[in-house]
Design a protein that fits this description.
The protein folds into 2 domains: about 230 residues, P-loop containing nucleotide triphosphate hydrolases (Rossmann fold); about 240 residues, P-loop containing nucleotide triphosphate hydrolases (Rossmann fold, 3-Layer(aba) Sandwich). About 35% of the residues lie in helices and about 25% in strands. The strands form 5 sheets. The protein has a 6-stranded mixed beta sheet, sandwiched between helices. Strands 16-19-20-13-21-22 form a 6-stranded mixed beta sheet, with helices on both faces. The chain has a 4-stranded antiparallel beta sheet with strand order 2-1-4-5, covered by helices on one side. The structure holds adenosine-5'-triphosphate and magnesium ion.
């Protein structure tokens, strides 16, 4: 099926998120959309899927103008979407999530639960997806939840599938599997709109690329273009994809972790026998395939985990047993893996989110009252430095684009005077230009004598930033190696193979 967007325009107040966008997606084509954070990609896709209404412009499906007022209208003309932030309801089962919200849709309304189950299993089989229709979504790993979203679109016979940053939260293996699924869908004649900040993937799978900058289409490119060329088209300037690094000036140990064990509520060990140190002036990266205890270890650094044994000291002070707030005040900057859950308060303004955890201090507080002016001024400074794109600094942080939300967390945490920086997936969802900037900032923290503990599933990022690499496997640190290690050896360690 072909999809044509003509002169789509959409404003939020004074901000023009989409400015006369034209886009044609051919039958059976994988069409990638590249663009910096806040360029307007999700806005455009939300318009196509009926979640937002354009101010002007038209949408054509197979040459005919269609009216899409809500997602069920989009599904009815064959357009499905998997969102940047999943829309599944965690306490419902897979099957319930699939029929949910479409009870009244013309085409789909006739779909009874048992028919939906049949269709779901048929499509899942076709794609080799293992899926339990009666499993609760909250118990499924992220990669499987995403499959549910894709299956949901396919059950409703989507002929144009929109994937908004589907790989941001996937492991490299899950990403490869998704790429195979996309190719199979294309072979069956499904058209795909693929949004990603990972240029390598875009090059691997796209037939054509459209580049959007500040709400406008600025270029179309072929997947044969180099990563450097694509990066420059997106950001409008050359981007250094590999940061320059000074030799480390390693000082005294700042973070010392001894005999650490993290248990789940039933007493099973998620992490055990963990010992390591991070010194002033160095970056220790924790690498590993997602799900080997890294998330729990990162959270334990600020006491977001409740069953911890052993010792974590920062500058000689024991952290284990303290509250999150107290831990942070021992001089820790913390960029959490899940910005939505632990990093931001969605209903607070952008400015307020930029000072969370320092808000009790001058100049923001006079007596008991928060000084909105001081907060706004500081917020605007930080937003400028980190290139956060917004309409008003007083808007709720939830109105920001995905990457700009991430930048709020990183800006706040890298602006506090601390001894230790703990950063989990700090560049998840960021565009290449912002990744370059955040990498430079993290290295600047290291060069200023801070200890940096980095958690990243991106090997490129680990290799770019780390001085030493600790590989986690099955809840333990399998080895700590120098950052000059070969990719092959790193890959083997991540698979649990130690020479
Ligand atoms: N509901 C809203 N209210 C105000 N501004 C909004 C709203 N939704 C989006 N915006 C703004 O529109 C712009 C485009 O956002 P959009 O989410 O489309 O960006 P994006 O290209 O998807 O970026 P990212 O790569 O970070 O996901 C951003 O500046 C964002 O702050
Ligand atoms: Mg987006």
């Amino acid at each position: 099926m072909s999809l044509e967007l003509n002169a789509i325009t959409k404003s939020f107040g004074a901000l023009i998120a989409n400015d006369g966008i034209n886009l044609a997606v051919n039958d059976g084509e994988i069409h990638a959309i590249l663009g910096e954070n806040g360029a307007g990609k999700s806005t455009l896709m939300n318009i196509v899927y009926g979640l937002l209404q354009p101010d002007s412009g038209e949408i054509k499906v197979d040459g005919k103008v269609v009216t899409i007022n809500e997602p069920s209208d989009a599904l009815a003309v064959g357009i499905g979407m998997v969102h940047q932030h999943f829309m599944l309801i965690p306490v419902f089962t897979v099957l319930e999530n699939i029929v949910l919200g479409h009870e009244n849709t013309s085409k789909v309304g006739k779909l009874k639960l048992h028919e939906a189950r049949e269709r779901l299993m048929k499509i899942a089989n076709e794609f080799g997806f293992e899926i339990d229709p009666d499993a609760y979504v909250e118990n499924l790993p992220v990669g499987v939840q995403q499959r549910v979203e894709i299956l949901k679109a396919l059950v409703y016979e989507a002929k144009v599938l929109i994937l908004d940053e589907p790989t941001a939260v996937l492991t490299p293996q899950e990403t490869d599997e998704l790429i195979e699924v996309m190719k199979r869908l294309r072979a069956q004649g499904t058209s795909i709109i693929f949004i990603s900040h990972k240029l390598r993937e875009v090059k691997a799978v796209a037939d054509r690329i459209t580049v959007i900058r500040r709400g406008k289409v600025v270029a179309t490119a072929q997947p044969s273009a180099s990563q450097e060329e694509l990066a420059a088209l997106m950001v409008g300037r050359p981007v250094n994809l590999m940061p320059d690094k000074n030799p480390p000036k390693v000082g005294a140990p700042i973070l010392v972790v001894k005999d650490l064990e993290i248990l789940d509520p039933s007493g099973r060990a998620l992490v055990s026998d963990v010992d390591f140190e991070v010194c002033a002036g160095e970056v220790l990266a924790i690498a590993g395939v997602q799900g080997n205890g890294q998330s729990e270890l990162a959270e334990a650094m600020v006491n977001l985990q409740s069953h911890v044994r052993g010792s974590i000291t920062v500058g000689g002070v024991e952290i284990v047993g303290k509250s999150v707030h107290e831990s942070l005040h021992e001089g820790i900057a913390f960029v959490p893996e899940s910005r939505e859950l632990n990093g931001l308060i969605g209903s607070f303004s952008i400015a307020e989110n930029l000072i969370l955890d320092t808000h009790r201090e001058a100049p923001y507080t006079k007596g008991f009252a928060l000084s909105p002016k001081a907060v706004a001024i500081r917020g605007e400074e930080q937003a400028k430095e980190f290139d956060i794109r917004y309409q008003s600094i007083q808007d709720p942080v939830s109105s920001l684009s995905g990457g700009n939300k991430q930048k709020v967390v990183v800006a706040r945490e890298l602006s506090r005077p601390v001894k230790l920086v703990v950063a989990s997936q700090p560049t998840r969802g960021l565009d290449v230009g912002s990744i370059e900037f955040v990498h430079e900032r993290i290295l600047a923290e290291r060069d200023a004598g801070r200890a940096v503990l980095l958690f990243s599933t991106e090997l490129d990022e680990v290799v770019a930033l780390a001085d030493r690499i600790a590989v986690m496997y099955a809840g333990k640190i399998l080895a700590i190696v120098d950052a000059t290690v070969s990719r092959e050896e790193l890959g083997l360690l991540m698979a649990g193979v130690k020479k």
